[in-house]
Amino acid sequence: MLSKTEVKYIQSLGHKKRREEEKLFLAEGNKLVAELIREIPGQLFRLYATEEFFQTHPDAEKIPVKHIITEEELQRISQQQTPNQALAIINYFPVKEISKLENEWYLALDGIRDPGNMGTIIRLAEWFGISNIICSPDCADIYNPKVVQATMGSIIRVNVVEKDLYTFLADQQIPVVGAVLGGKELSSFKFPAAGVLVIGNEANGISTEVMRLLTHQLMIPRFGEAESLNAAIATSIFLWEMKRS
Amino acid sequence: MLSKTEVKYIQSLGHKKRREEEKLFLAEGNKLVAELIREIPGQLFRLYATEEFFQTHPDAEKIPVKHIITEEELQRISQQQTPNQALAIINYFPVKEISKLENEWYLALDGIRDPGNMGTIIRLAEWFGISNIICSPDCADIYNPKVVQATMGSIIRVNVVEKDLYTFLADQQIPVVGAVLGGKELSSFKFPAAGVLVIGNEANGISTEVMRLLTHQLMIPRFGEAESLNAAIATSIFLWEMKRS
Known about the structure:
2 domains; alpha/beta; homodimer; six-stranded parallel β-sheet
């Protein structure tokens, strides 16, 4: 039986300020929590799950602090519309600092605000073998519950660091590629072996400062009348084009 | 001042059953509603908008039945978390029936359930110049408010018909392409000039029956560890690959 204080504490981790004070975040759902137990059991601070979850996931036994809760209790502590068996409180990931960009591809996110886009882009990065993402400070918090859910577990394996993009990128000796209206057609571009792909804000695109650092301005041509492509969709097309060749 | 009955009536159009009885659906937001007024004013059954909206959109004057409402009233009738100036009730679009597939590309959606994916795929279709989408009956309702919002207006211009996919596609003499685990690598495939691209359900992929009709089984190769790609993302990569060459 969860106490009121405990319920309130868990709910409070829905807020960024509280997460940063505690260095803890929430992850939910049968599949994601099972993956966390398998991959990073040492980072699980608390596990709340239904009897069914514990019966079907015997390795949950090894988590030191765990609680069997009812569906109703799960509903109370969940940030999801349809909670599914389990909720975990997780320690923040250790960030691998990045100072000099090496001989591989990086993603730089310049003000991605929508948590669904943010999470989908982290998942895409992993699919396409990008290990590091550099975020501007105005991006959605990667520990926002909606971001965590949308990554579908990729958040465990992709390293995300926060930087002032302009200052950071200005120091690098590496191609910087971005989507710009009127840029060169994407399919005609030969991606070099390494570089930074910059993805701009959903409404305003790449910021004026960062735009000045682009060494290659590219564009996804439009074949119909639609006004724009979603930021995660544009990312997927760029990453596919980078890797297909 | 909106009456309780009117508020209830508008809210009821959030439900599929009610929409189908009335052949009406909801569209919201400054940008989308402005586009509807510009493109299909004759289909606007009712317009509810704030004074600010009417001041900045003089062509709203031509809509026969319109109401100036307050922000509070908009909040009460809206399906959105953050309503934005306007809500319109729209007549269903006339469906252009499709019997024989012609010399162009079509999308066939086999059980796309998530309204966000459904709307994003309609928007993608328009971007890549696909004019017709064939949906299985278990797809998300295209008039679901979340689908309408996610299309960002493309729902006006893309023709969507509902069909039993297996029966319909079995009769066609046209390539049928789909994403299948273990399929041929996508970038090695030369897309013919016309065909049907089948996108499967988010959890289960293409249904067993429809799978038998595929003339080409393709796969997006994975470069990292991520388990899967979202259905809308996979669609974008297929459509890009189809059009890039």
